[in-house]
């Protein structure tokens, strides 16, 4: 083992350790990894920043912008509302919504497709009395398997296409993933159509199962006015009015002194009560007792006229500017014109003051502001409103144009008229020029942390291959897999990628595993294509944790899920995906090299653009 190989392995171990430690954001970990690689000399300075201009980053960024444009359309919402009366059972709702988000995920970034369907699903749940926990996790998993059907559905597909271009001079094209992806997706949808029954139906301390919106109890603050019937009463009497769904977890009085009260404490006028409550119980007790719901800012509520005031529930998106910050630091009222009224957090009991709380992805917020300004404020904060997008206030809407733009983009790639990078970049620009998105919305759609991670780890990934580190690992794997059938080696690579993804970001896993998979194929004398396909599917299909993929994180708060809930549905689905993919990959991507060497698209006759280097990478 050479010194460079030792250094690159130490660097990989350090990056993985920081990802698992989870105290630093993954984009910061990637920046530190690139800096360390330059300091160690394993990434030359002239190549260190090549990742920022790599076409992988261009494709991902363009696909995110186009996904945001499609999300502006209300056509999907109107279609769901039209067929909703026919969805008389929970199973029918799960199957319809999951299939819809899966199909859309094949055409755009899966996180964008889920963001389109999430508010619709919450509204369907509310109107039908169905628990969102039955709907949202199957939808998140459907968006993940839908993403593996085309090149642009998920980042790992784009990354393994880049690795193939470096190996053979030709990348995977837009629809090279489709035959295996469709088979895996079909099996996954068939399971999810009845597997949703494995999910929890309700929890103690939450809204009853008849209440559609079931998240962890809200943390909110309320001021006790002098004319309230609660003045002079005890904490126990207040909680009795809430019928067990309202708890006084703190009282702030005497300036800013915070007390944890006993049940016999007397309530005084001017007390600031920190309440943990079901949202419906909170609404009832405020109406009955005259409590004034407080906020993280002061004065805004008074400036809002009754007709202009708006209150909205929204979920904090992964990558939101809120994540890791407190309301006090963000100055929500002054900078964004909104007040934070309440917050609910998945699987956690919150006992801190609202203004001191640090936001996490998946938190569900109740925000107050001017109704006509709320949509823009939510977009700037990176929050997804849990309301039907077709009824959003203050936003012009073009229903057909975004979907038409997406259709034309996919057609241009399928027919070989333009490379993927060119087609999606052009579509992103046209989305802004046509007025579908403002320039500010286009920039907000860019997931900068994931783009930074890709740009920084691409040179590190190249270093793993350039130093011979990937070949060294592959040699060890080849020795272990040498006595096994070739299909088993593919299965092991898929399972290894699937096992790493919950601890690393899926893009980071793909950047690490793809060169190793290609080297392993070479050591075994097999074609690298099936191994790269296995890595792409394994990295894209994290069903076991809420943190391995943004789609899983996004539904955790609105669905009221806890960390362990993902195993209930995710473990059997992972087994199904691994088995089906292992059976299908050798069928469409033979393990033995044919006489033509790397014939990139063995089934490409089915697609008009199959023989065009549509991946957009240089040969």
From TrEMBL:
The chain crosses the membrane at residues 6-21, 28-44, 56-80, 135-160, 180-199, 403-436, 442-460, 472-497, 503-524, 569-591. GO terms for cellular component: plasma membrane. One of its GO terms (molecular function) is monoatomic cation transmembrane transporter activity. Its main location: membrane. Residues 206-291, 299-384 form the RCK C-terminal domain. Coiled coil: none annotated. Gene3D superfamilies: Regulator of K+ conductance, C-terminal domain. It is found in: Membrane. It comes from the Bacteria. It is a multi-pass membrane protein. Keywords: Membrane, Repeat, Transmembrane, Transmembrane helix, Transport. CDD domains: SLC13_permease (cd01115). GO terms for biological process: potassium ion transport. PANTHER family: BASIC AMINO ACID ANTIPORTER YFCC-RELATED. This is SLC13 family permease. It comes from Rhodovastum atsumiense.
């Amino acid at each position: 083992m050479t010194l460079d190989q030792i250094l690159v392995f130490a660097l990989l171990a350090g990056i993985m350790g920081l990802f698992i430690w989870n105290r630093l954001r993954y984009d910061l970990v990637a920046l530190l990894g690139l800096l360390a690689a330059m300091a160690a000399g394993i990434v030359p300075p002239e190549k260190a920043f090549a990742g920022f201009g790599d076409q992988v980053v261009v494709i991902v960024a363009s696909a995110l912008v186009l996904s945001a444009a499609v999300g502006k359309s209300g056509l999907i919402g109107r279609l769901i509302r039209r067929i909703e009366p026919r969805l008389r059972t929970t199973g029918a709702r799960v199957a319809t919504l999951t299939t819809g988000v899966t199909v859309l995920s094949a055409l755009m970034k899966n996180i964008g497709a889920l963001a389109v369907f999430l508010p619709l699903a919450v509204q369907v749940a509310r109107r039908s009395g169905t628990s969102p926990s039955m709907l949202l996790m199957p939808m998140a998993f459907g968006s993940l398997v839908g993403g593996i059907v085309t090149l642009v559905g998920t980042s790992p597909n784009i990354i393994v296409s880049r690795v193939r271009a470096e190996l053979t001079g030709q990348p995977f094209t837009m629809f090279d993933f489709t035959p295996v992806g469709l088979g895996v997706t079909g099996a996954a949808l068939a399971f999810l159509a009845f597997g949703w029954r494995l999910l929890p139906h309700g929890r103690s301390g939450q809204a009853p199962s008849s209440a559609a919106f079931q998240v962890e109890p809200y943390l909110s603050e309320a001021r006790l006015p002098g004319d309230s019937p609660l003045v002079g009463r005890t904490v126990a009497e207040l909680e009795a009015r809430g019928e067990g769904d309202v708890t006084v977890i703190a009282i702030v009085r005497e300036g800013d002194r915070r007390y944890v009260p006993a049940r016999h404490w007397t309530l005084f006028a001017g007390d600031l009560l920190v309440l943990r409550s079901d949202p419906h119980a909170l609404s009832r007790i405020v109406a009955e007792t005259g409590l004034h719901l407080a906020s993280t800012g002061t004065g805004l509520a008074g400036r809002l006229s009754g007709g202009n005031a708006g209150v909205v529930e929204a979920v904090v998106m992964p990558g939101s500017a809120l994540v890791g910050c407190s309301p006090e630091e963000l100055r929500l009222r002054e900078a964004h014109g909104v007040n934070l009224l309440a917050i609910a957090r998945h699987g956690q009991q919150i006992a801190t003051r609202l203004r001191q709380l640090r936001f996490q992805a998946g938190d569900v917020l109740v925000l107050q502001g001017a109704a006509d300004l709320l949509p823009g404020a939510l977009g700037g904060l990176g929050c997804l409103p849990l309301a039907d997008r077709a009824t959003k206030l203050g936003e012009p809407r073009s229903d057909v144009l975004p979907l038409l733009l997406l259709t034309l983009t996919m057609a241009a790639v399928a027919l070989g008229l333009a490379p993927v990078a060119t087609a999606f970049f052009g579509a992103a620009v046209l989305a802004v020029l046509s007025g579908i998105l403002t320039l500010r919305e286009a920039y907000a759609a860019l997931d900068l942390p994931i783009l930074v991670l890709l740009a920084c780890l691409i040179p590190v990934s190249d270093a793993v291959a350039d130093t011979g580190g990937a070949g060294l690992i592959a040699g060890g794997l080849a020795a272990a897999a040498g006595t096994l059938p070739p299909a088993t080696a593919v299965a092991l690579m898929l399972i290894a990628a699937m096992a790493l993804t919950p601890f690393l970001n899926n893009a980071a896993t793909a950047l690490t595993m793809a060169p190793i998979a290609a080297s392993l194929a070479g050591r075994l004398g097999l074609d690298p294509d099936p191994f790269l396909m296995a890595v792409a599917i394994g990295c894209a299909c994290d069903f076991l944790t809420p943190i391995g993929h943004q789609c899983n994180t996004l539904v955790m708060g609105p669905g009221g899920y806890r960390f362990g809930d993902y195993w209930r549905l995710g473990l059997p689905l992972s087994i199904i995906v691994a088995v089906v993919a292992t059976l299908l990959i050798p069928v469409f991507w033979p393990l033995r090299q044919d006489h033509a060497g790397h014939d990139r698209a063995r089934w490409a006759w089915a697609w008009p653009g199959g023989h065009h280097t549509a991946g957009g990478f240089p040969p």
